[in-house]
Amino acid sequence: MIGYLRGRLARKQPPTLLVDVNGVGYEVEAPMSTIFGLPEIGADVQLHTHFVVRQDQQTLYGFATEAERSLFREVIKVSGVGAKMGLTILSGISVEGFASCVQAEDKAALTRLPGIGRKTAERLIVEMRDRLSGETAVSLTGVSLAPSAAEAPRAEAFHALVSLGYKPVEANRMLDRVKSAEGSTEDILRQVLRSAAT
């Protein structure tokens, strides 16, 4: 596994980069978000990488940040989303923007990305929702999105409301109405549901 590359940027022909590492040129596929932030040819660069080996090819993907690589690794696990579409997603939306779209179930924003239709957007939302919140969260913004010990009951209450059929946006709104809610998950849920009934 190649975790990162540090070397001289020898060529930039989007979406392909050539990075010279001590005399060895590595061809790297990168999203436009990474390419736009690169320095001029000849400057030193460091890229977080993801190496894919298939029967007929080996491809190295490079990312400016750990968050971009983490998101790429998660989206290519989604049914029907390959590495090419993963690069498209990262080229068209920021990591934080993608997370917001998933949490808000904003299919319209995702379908504006090239090559992503309604069904793919729905799959991304359904399959990525759990990975962007709760204990199974991936670190996408440089800090873990998993709740702290103090936030855990609220996060669990959020998931309980969603499992009861409330939309994520609606569940967050209900929780915001009782911001003073403290205690266990059950206590918070009791207050939220009591508030919703009044």
Provide a concise account of the structure shown.
The chain is an alpha+beta fold and 198 residues long.
Observed structural traits:
198 residues, alpha+beta, OB fold (Dihydrolipoamide Acetyltransferase, E2P), DNA polymerase, domain 1, Helicase, Ruva Protein, domain 3, 5-stranded antiparallel beta sheet, 5 strands
CATH fold descriptor of the largest domain: DNA polymerase, domain 1
For the record, what CATH class of the largest domain applies?
Mainly Alpha
Helix/strand structural class:
alpha+beta
Low-pLDDT windows of residues: 134-139, 141-150
SS field, number of helical segments: 9
The percentage helix is 40-55%
Order of helices and strands: EEEHEEHHHHHHHH
Q: Tally of extended strands?
A: 5
Name the CATH architecture of the largest domain: Orthogonal Bundle
CATH superfamily of the largest domain: 5' to 3' exonuclease, C-terminal subdomain
Taken together, the total number of domains comes to 3
Q: What percentage of the residues does DSSP assign to strands (E)?
A: 15-25%
How can the largest sheet be summarized? 5 strands, antiparallel
**What's the pLDDT, averaged over the residues?**
83
What general form does the structure show? elongated
Give me the Rg, rounded: 20 Å
Question: What is the distance, rounded to the nearest whole angstrom, between the alpha carbons of the first and last residues?
Answer: 56 Å
